[in-house]
Design goal:
Belongs to the AAA ATPase family. This is Proteasome-activating nucleotidase. One of its GO terms (cellular component) is proteasome-activating nucleotidase complex. By secondary structure, the chain is α/β, with parallel strands linked by helices. Helices cover 49% and strands 11% of the residues. The protein contains 11 helices and 6 strands. The chain starts with 6 loop residues before the first strand and ends with a helix. The relative contact order is 0.15.
């Protein structure tokens, strides 16, 4: 069967309104990615070069992919994405070719954003490149660097890469003219968690006793993806009770369940 090695979305559904918190990160992405794609002439007139690419880094499930899609939508750019770990594990021997195809597609579809998730899988610093697998990963990285070096800052292609492991990245990828703008996407703070609850309960009927501020206080340390899981679980609790509206108790049970799962994953089983 044919397995897709990259994904192309002509017009992503996600908007900035679907993102809770991350206001400063959105502002920065608009300035360094959206604006130059929409208005390269402005940069020519002022005489500055925007970055060709940015790196989003931070813990899993906090909105990196969401942000990249929203920027593509607002810039009216095509969204072309690849996953670093898949290039290494699923498409063995084809990494360099896929990278080449992705950028050729991006030039054709420009304005376009190339999103590289889990870039650490192809751009980790290596102590030795002895095995053939490592040489293959190295070839994929060389191809990526060549592609980034091969377009100009005002060509209507931008790279957004994402990683949870910025510490392992090969500095070559972060050099000036490459992914030289780093934007941290941290775990949400209390206000951020409140806004993420708001986004995901938008289409929900909430009972009067539900207090999203209180839920935000009780979910310290959780990611946006985990908050979404809590909202979904709370909805299931309502369905199990034969209700179409969601109560405080539905949420409380959901918080316990998701927090417990997280502790199991971390190996802190009590
Ligand atoms: P990963 O490193 O696991 O790829 P990521 O940072 O790219 O994580 P996303 O894929 O953007 O995370 O988030 C996963 C899901 O969690 C999103 O589809 C969304 O439903 C929810 N989510 C995460 N962060 C936010 C946020 N800031 N606002 C609203 N929803 C969020």
């Amino acid at each position: 069967p044919y397995v897709q090695s990259f994904e192309v979305i002509e017009r992503p559904e996600v908007t900035y309104n679907d993102i809770g918190g991350l206001k400063e990160q959105i502002r920065e992405l608009r300035e360094v990615v959206e604006l130059p794609l929409k208005n390269p002439d402005l940069f020519r007139e002022v005489g500055i070069e925007p970055p060709k690419g940015v790196l989003l880094y931070g813990p899993p499930g906090c909105g990196k992919t969401l942000l990249a899609k929203a920027v593509a939508r607002e810039a009216e750019a095509a969204f072309i994405s690849i996953v670093g770990s898949e290039l290494v594990q699923k498409f063995i021997g084809e990494g360099a070719r896929i990278v080449k195809e992705v950028f050729s597609m991006a030039r054709k579809k420009a304005p376009a954003i190339v999103f590289i998730d889990e870039i650490d899988a192809i751009a980790a610093k290596r102590i030795d490149i002895g095995t053939s697998g490592e040489r293959e990963v190295q070839r994929t990285l060389m191809q990526l660097l060549a592609e980034i070096d091969g377009f100009r800052p005002l060509d209507r292609v931008k790279v957004i890469a994402a990683t949870n492991r910025i510490d392992v990245l090969d500095p070559a990828i972060l050099r000036p003219g490459r992914l030289d703008r780093l934007i941290e996407i941290p775990l949400p703070d209390k206000q951020g968690r409140y806004e993420i609850f708001k986004v995901h309960t938008r289409r929900m009927k909430l009972a009067d006793d539900v207090d999203l501020h209180e839920l935000a206080s009780k979910t310290e340390g959780l990611s946006g993806a985990e908050i979404k899981a809590i909202v979904t679980e709370a909805g299931y609790n309502a369905i199990r009770s034969g209700r179409k509206f969601v109560t405080r108790e539905d949420f409380e049970l959901a918080v316990k369940k998701i927090a417990a799962k997280k502790n199991v994953r971390r190996g802190i089983v009590e």
